[in-house]
Amino acid sequence: MILIGEKLNGFIPAMGQAIAARKESYVRKWARKQWEAGANYLDVCASGAEGELDALLWLMDVVQSEVDAPLSLVSQLPLSLDSSHVEVLEAALRRYPGRALINSISLEGGKAQRLLPQIAAQGHSCVALLLHDGVPTDVEGRMQAFERILALADDCGLPRGRLFIDPLVTALATDEEGDAFAVFAQCCREIRACQAGVHIIAGASNVSFGLPARKHVNRAFLALALSAGLDSAICDPTDPDIQGILYAARALLGEDELCGEYLRAYRAGRFC
User: 222 with 156, same domain?
Assistant: First the structure.
């Protein structure tokens, strides 16, 4: 399971305030906490900040200095560069010295066509949203977007193992048809059935937007999504209950021989 830490996001009120005030200590704390919790990537997002590009570059520099600091217990950790603006992502890529996970591209506005060649040539990975004229409401529409994105990635020479497909789960609170998860899960199953060699990712917090006690919805979503084929998640890796659910679900799905990963994570204190 690939975990992308979600806590360095300007849409989270406390983090947004820290970014606006350039409060390094707060950013460093959450960078370290997420790495120590086992995050594979740290998602950095300054959307909503005044001067998004400058804010994102500052955020990148602070996080990178923390996760690659001399004599630090934290080793170099890849970043997930998160913005809805192509120009911001391009500028961030010019600054970033390593191989990033770009979050995200889609077919809308020619974003995939513009960014995929750069992502492939520079050795990055990317999250691809199954958008096309908005969020398709049915499985067929999202799978059509998937096929187009896969073809574009292949044409650019992007290895499929560096492509993270987000089938998109909408918020339960606004799900009038009551099929938000069902459509998402069926897309996951069909993508897995294609044996395309891509990752399947989701933002766990998206499904609970607008609801109280969101952590319960996020945890349940991750457990169910794993059974449908999810192998990557943007979530809070510092939540021990999420960690426990993820390891337990993998064991129940037969993806953890003799519960070895579960036992190692438990002994390491990831959950109790």
Answer: yes
Helix axes 111-121, 139-156, angle to 10 degrees: 40
CB 168 within 8 A of CB 236: no
Strands 41-45 and 79-82: parallel
Instruction: Indicate the pTM of the whole model.
Output: 0.94
| Domain assignment of residue 114, yes or no | no
The percent of residues above 70 in pLDDT, for the chain, comes to 97
Q: Is 109 left (phi over 0), alpha (psi -120 to 50) or beta?
A: left
Residue 227 DSSP SS3: helix
**DSSP three-state, residue 131:** coil
197-236 tens-digit pLDDT: 999 999 999 999 999 999 999 999 999 999 999 999 999 9
Give the bridge partners for 156, in sequence order. none
Q: 195 and 245 share a domain? A: no
**181 near 139, Cβ under 8 Å?**
no
pLDDT exceeds cutoff 80 at 76: no
Q: Where are the alpha helices (DSSP H) in 125-257?
A: 139-156, 180-193, 214-228, 240-252
Domain count, the chain: 3
